[in-house]
Amino acid sequence: MSYLGVVPSEHSSGTRRRQGSITKSGSQHARRLLVEAAWHYRQPPRVSEPLRRRQAGADPQIVALSWKTQRRLHRVWSRMQQRGKRRTIIAVAAARELAGFCWAVATD
Of 42, 36, 48, nearest to 73 (Cα)? Predict the structure, then answer.
């Protein structure tokens, strides 16, 4: 996540810890793609018929992980929206979570 720059910057001194905006290090293109993809998690997760056909020959473990990802990212979006966070902030938070799931798929 830090490689893509979707983690908060930090200003710490002694016991005081202040977090700022995202670091924006790494690939701007990859970060933008993650944030754009994160906007889709505003809607509740569902499996449409075309998606069901595409997943028919896929590894069941990957399909299960993708479903887990969809549910979790929508839950992140819903909870942060209920707390009154701005939608752009929520999108970056969801992009950070999505980066973690992408890493999990790549390393398994």
Answer: 42
Q: Is residue 41 part of a domain?
A: yes
Domain holding 90, by residue range, is 8-107
**How many domains does one find in the chain?**
1
Q: What is the DSSP letter of 14?
A: T
DSSP secondary structure of 69-86: HHHHHHHHHHHHHHTT--
Is there a domain that residue 3 lies in? no
Tell how far CA 2 is from the center of its chain.
13
Each residue's pLDDT tens digit in the chain (108 positions)? 888 888 888 899 989 999 888 888 888 999 999 999 999 999 999 989 999 999 999 999 889 988 999 999 999 999 999 999 999 999 999 999 999 988 888 887
- Position 2 in a domain: no
For the stretch 23-50, what's the b/e string if a residue is b when 16 or more beta carbons lie within 10 angstroms of its beta carbon?
beeeeeebbeebbeebeebeeebeeeee
